[in-house]
Amino acid sequence: MTVKFHGHAVLSFNNNDTDVIIDPFINGNDLTDLTVENIKADYIILTHGHNDHVGDTIEIAKSNNATVIAPVELAAYAEAQGVENTVGMNVGGEGEYDFGKVKFVHAFHTSSYTDGEGVTHYTGEPMGLILTINNKKVYVTGDTGLFGDMELIAKRNGPIDVCFIPIGDHFTMGIDDAAYAINELIKPTIAVPVHFDTFPPIKQDPEEFKNKVNTVCQVLKPGEAVQYS
């Protein structure tokens, strides 16, 4: 199993000759190693509607004829922007695709998209993801604060092999809450911090997080992949 980190909260993987990208915020993301023109995607998965997660979804979907899997209201917005293939899902729902399974779970955050004309669109509830890839379970918490049902999510869908969790604070949980979530609630085999350093309010030291968790922590640079056998 290989999942790559591309700065902020952008993740990608290939399984069964199928390319998947999650929350493709590329333009405006100074930390990413990607360019929109070079992205190959069969599927795009979105956790919520904020601009730093929807990112370049519309352009990528159109140029690749990719399917967008997203919370139902966000999928409808993508369709209204001319994306031909969308799958709208909701909390608790699971779907099986060429690359594996996707289950949407709760996250505690907000969700809206502001278009180029400054109009804000309601894009449904924010969500996390449970990915099943070659029998490995990956928990992408999405943008969220700490909440107790992370433990239930992990118990019902785990054991969790890899957890991608935000540490940036200000807009999401910070280092201390993220460490508590990893140590006491989710208890994954590997923890990977995301959603930090992109903007001044979310500058954080991932090594501090690494020192506070009691499991393997991989701090990835953009373009690096989580190592799991």
What does this structure look like?
The protein is of the alpha/beta class and 229 residues long. It has a single domain (3-217), classed as 4-Layer Sandwich (Metallo-beta-lactamase, Chain A), CATH 3.60.15. It contains six helices and 15 strands. Helix 5 runs parallel beside helix 6 (206-212). The longest helix has 12 residues, at 175-186. The protein is globular. The termini are close together. The model has no long low-confidence stretch (mean pLDDT 98). One of its GO terms (molecular function) is hydrolase activity. Keywords: Hydrolase. InterPro entries: Metallo-B-lactamas, RibonucZ/Hydroxyglut_hydro, UPF0173, UPF0173_UPF0282_UlaG_hydrolase.
Short description:
The chain is α/β, with parallel strands linked by helices.
List the helices and strands and how they pair.
Blueprint: E1 3-5, E2 11-15, E3 18-22, E4 43-45, H1 51-54, H2 57-64, E5 67-71, H3 72-80, E6 85-89, E7 94-97, E8 100-106, E9 112-114, E10 120-122, E11 127-133, E12 136-140, H4 149-157, E13 162-166, H5 175-186, E14 190-194, H6 206-212, E15 216-217
Parallel strand pairs: 3-4, 4-5, 5-6, 12-13, 13-14, 14-15
Antiparallel strand pairs: 1-2, 2-3, 7-8, 8-11, 9-10, 11-12
Helix pairs in contact: 4-5, 5-6
Keywords:
229 residues, alpha/beta, Metallo-beta-lactamase, Chain A, seven-stranded mixed sheet, six-stranded mixed sheet, 6 helices, 15 strands, 21% helix, globular, RibonucZ/Hydroxyglut_hydro, Metallo-B-lactamas
